[in-house]
Design goal:
CATH topology of the largest domain: Double Stranded RNA Binding Domain
Organism: Devosia equisanguinis
Helix content: 40-55%
Order of helices and strands: EEEHHHEHH
Strand order of the largest sheet: 3-2-1-4
InterPro entries: HicB-like (IPR031807), TA_system_antitoxin (IPR051404), TTHA1013/TTHA0281-like (IPR035069)
Number of strands: 4
Distance between the termini: 14 Å
Largest sheet: 4 strands, antiparallel
Strand content: 15-25%
Number of domains: 2
Protein name: Ribbon-helix-helix protein, copG family
Structural class: alpha+beta
Radius of gyration: 18 Å
Number of helices: 5
Shape: globular
Pfam families: HicB_lk_antitox
Amino acid sequence: MRFIAMIHKDPDSAFGVQFPDVPGCFSAGETLEEASQNAVEALGSHIRMLEADGDAIPQPRSLDAIVDDESLNEARADAILVSVPLVRDLGSTTRINVSLDLGLLQAIDDEARSRGQTRSAFIASAVRRELAD
């Protein structure tokens, strides 16, 4: 599931992020890339809080629907629209079976070791970054 976010940059400020379909969910970042990555975490945290409170989870609209929504004209002005994945941390891990080329697996293990991470932690962080892009 992906939500559309609007990223704005005012002079002398960080990039601000808001979600038209998720009222009250905001984020920011010093760079556009950082703002996009922080938006993934903010969205996941906000949805987790809604679920904990027993509130309904909003349904994301398509990019076309956001662009066509005249009530968003002002908020959309000068905004960069990005699609943000909803990544839920459910607090439990699951063992899976994945097939990879041996050379890729060796590269993953080498990089994970150099960062002081396990193979699983490295793959999870790489997937999170890829989903945010």
